[in-house]
Design brief:
By secondary structure, the chain is of the alpha/beta class. It has 2 domains: 65 residues, Signal recognition particle alu RNA binding heterodimer, srp9/1 (2-Layer Sandwich), CATH 3.30.720; 58 residues, 2,3-Dihydroxybiphenyl 1,2-Dioxygenase, domain 1, CATH 3.10.180. Helices cover 16% and strands 33% of the residues. It is built from 2 helices and 8 strands. The strands form 2 sheets. The chain has a 4-stranded mixed beta sheet with strand order 1-4-3-2, with helices on one face. Strands 5-8-7-6 form a 4-stranded mixed beta sheet, with helices on one face. A hairpin with a 5-residue loop joins strand 3 and strand 4. It comes from Saccharothrix mutabilis subsp. mutabilis.
């Protein structure tokens, strides 16, 4: 199969305004699309300066997506995001100071990166990664 050009992960959010605030204000994503254009949005796309994009959608009132399946699993986390930062220790301390739960304090990995995990407003793990020094 060929023809795929890019991927666009989408998160289902229990509280879209709260999740948008987290991804925009705490992680630095910029909103670049919203639906509907007027009134309270049910979907917002956000991006980082490198072109990475993420979709944030309010969970449907009946819990079903447009595909007709449940938007929430019965157990476990639904999503895990990895974002890169130049200073894992500093940004995790800043995020913790803002009240975002730290799931794993910064630590060095066997493959050379420094990583930490925080939770987004829906409890999804977000891995903050600092690339290995070259």
């Amino acid at each position: 199969m060929s023809g795929f050009r890019s991927a666009f992960p989408m998160l289902v959010c229990d509280d879209l305004p709260r999740s948008l605030e987290f991804y925009r204000d705490a992680l630095g994503f910029t909103p670049d699309y919203r639906f509907p254009e007027e009134g309270d949005p049910v979907f917002v796309a956000v991006s980082l300066p490198d072109g990475s994009r993420l979709g944030l959608g309010q969970v449907a009132s009946d819990g079903l997506g447009v595909h007709g399946r449940l938007q929430r699993p019965t157990s476990g986390h639904r999503f895990e995001l990895c974002v890169y930062h130049d200073d894992v220790d500093a940004v995790v301390a800043e995020l913790a100071g803002l009240g975002h739960p730290v799931l794993l304090e910064p630590s060095d990995t066997p493959w050379g990166e420094r990583v930490a995990f925080i939770a987004d407003p829906d409890g999804n793990p977000v891995m903050i990664t600092q690339e290995a020094a070259r």
